[in-house]
Structure formats: C-alpha cells, structure tokens
Amino acid sequence: MGVITISLSKDSEKLLRESAKLHYGNKKDAISKTIVKALNNLENSRDDLKINLIEKLKNNNQKLKLSQIKNRNEYYK
After folding, report:
1. 61: helix, coil or strand?
2. What are the boundaries of each domain within the chain?
3. Considering the entire predicted model, what is its pTM?
4. Residues near 8 by Cβ (< 8 Å), separated by ≥ 6?
C-alpha cells in the first residue's frame, strides 16, 4: 500500500469528506475507500467507452477510402 499526499480546494475536500461519510460513515479508512471506489468507477467507465467505440467501429458500414482524401483538413470536416 502506498501513501499519497495531495492538496485539494476547500470545496473538493468538503465533497470528498461528505461522500466518504455518506458511504462509509466515520470509519478510519472511509476516505481511502471513497477514493479507491472513484478510481474503480473511472476505470470501468473507460473500459465501457472503449468497448462502445470498438462496437461502433465494427458496425460502421462506411469504409474510408484513402483516395477520397486530398489533404489533412478533410479528415476534420
């Protein structure tokens, strides 16, 4: 287990402490558990986005023909 020291704004600190208390009460490790839960949720969100993107790419029936693109700006239209 590692130890990390961070600086938070007053509002962020208040939000973190309130979330920890709401989910875990006044337990000693409530803040740590809250942060770990948030990180796990972030990781799961990213995984879901990746899966969604892959599915969209697989289901995309339009094929990009490189000969149709004349310059880089046309990619961003």
Report:
1. coil
2. 28-60
3. 0.63
4. 16
